[in-house]
Design goal:
about 300 residues; mainly beta; Immunoglobulin-like; 2 domains; 21 strands
Length: about 300
């Protein structure tokens, strides 16, 4: 079969485009784009992603008679990967950062002795997903309180040791390729008995950094259970118009912490005047079904 000159040019153009799409940089760009599109389908309060691993939900909470829950693990990358599960104990610091610990702080209780996971490792191909079961056991005799540990998912690509350095020989030269190792940590909380918590917002002020403006605050927690929700900042003009100028999703205050210092970067600054009016800060539970306002405060600007 003979091709016309126009068909030959079209064929060469198509081959060039296919080669371009197959280059590593373009593959990486497409991979990032796909990950972004997938994660955008979920509320950030319900999904967590790192590297090529996507997990829903972003936390597991056992309350009442519930003994088994499920996590969905999805490989949104372009390569097969093995994900291994382990447990870690974590302390939340006052600024919201975390550090690993082996001994609980006063008022903190670990959940790991009472948790079981099935399976403890999975192999997922590109765009594959699998359910992982989380079971809580032996809690009948536990004292009333909240028990928390964190499950850590570590990716192992191509069954190679973590952080392995590859040496590739090509035409007498050696190139070094570092293989990134990704991991995700999510909390697993077990609540025993009737627990309660209340929140308040204090120490609110507007601060200006080099290139940004933000609202600083302190989230104050009391009671015997952790709290998590979304922070929203609204600006009220003198004539009553409301403009949303900041939002942060999935903000938690874990037991035994009584406070967390937090900052929300402001947006829409061209539509407001921070020298007058007022701002309102709300902290609302991140439930899609029945969100509850946990705390609210206002700051008069002058």
């Amino acid at each position: 079969m003979k091709f016309t000159d126009s068909q030959k040019r079209s064929t060469r153009t198509l081959k060039t485009k296919m080669k371009f799409l197959a280059t590593p940089n373009v593959k990486l760009l497409l991979q990032i784009l796909i990950a972004f599109l997938i994660t955008s389908l979920f509320n950030s309060a319900e999904v967590v992603a790192q590297g090529n691993l996507l997990i829903t939900p972003r936390r597991v909470v056992f309350e009442g008679a519930k003994k088994i829950q499920e996590l969905n693990l999805a490989n949104i990358g372009m390569d097969s990967a093995r994900y291994v599960l382990s447990m870690v104990e974590i302390r939340m610091k006052e600024d919201g950062s975390f550090e690993k610990i082996t001994v609980p702080d006063s008022g903190q209780f670990f959940a790991s002795p009472y948790l079981r996971f099935f399976p403890r490792s999975v192999v997922l191909g590109p765009n594959e997903s699998q359910l992982l079961k989380v079971q809580v056991a032996r809690t009948e005799q536990l004292p009333v309180g909240e028990y928390r540990s964190h499950v850590y998912f570590r990716a192992e690509r191509d069954d190679k040791p973590l952080g392995e350095i590859e040496a590739k020989i090509d035409s007498g030269s050696i190139s070094i390729s570092l293989i990134p190792v990704f991991g995700i940590t999510i909390p697993v909380i077990v609540r025993v008995g009737e627990l309660n918590a209340s929140m308040a917002i204090s120490d609110v002020k507007v601060v200006k950094h080099d290139t940004t403006t933000a609202v600083e605050m302190v989230l104050n927690r009391s009671g015997n259970k952790s709290v998590y929700g979304d922070v929203s900042v609204d600006y009220f003009t003198a004539d009553g118009k409301i403009v949303n100028v900041g939002q942060a999703k999935g903000v938690s205050v874990y037991t035994p912490n009584s406070k967390r210092r937090f900052e929300v970067k402001l947006k829409n600054l061209d539509a407001i005047n921070l020298s007058k009016g007022k701002i309102r800060i709300q902290y609302v539970s991140d439930s899609d079904i029945n969100p509850i306002k946990l705390a609210e405060t206002e700051l008069e600007l002058n």
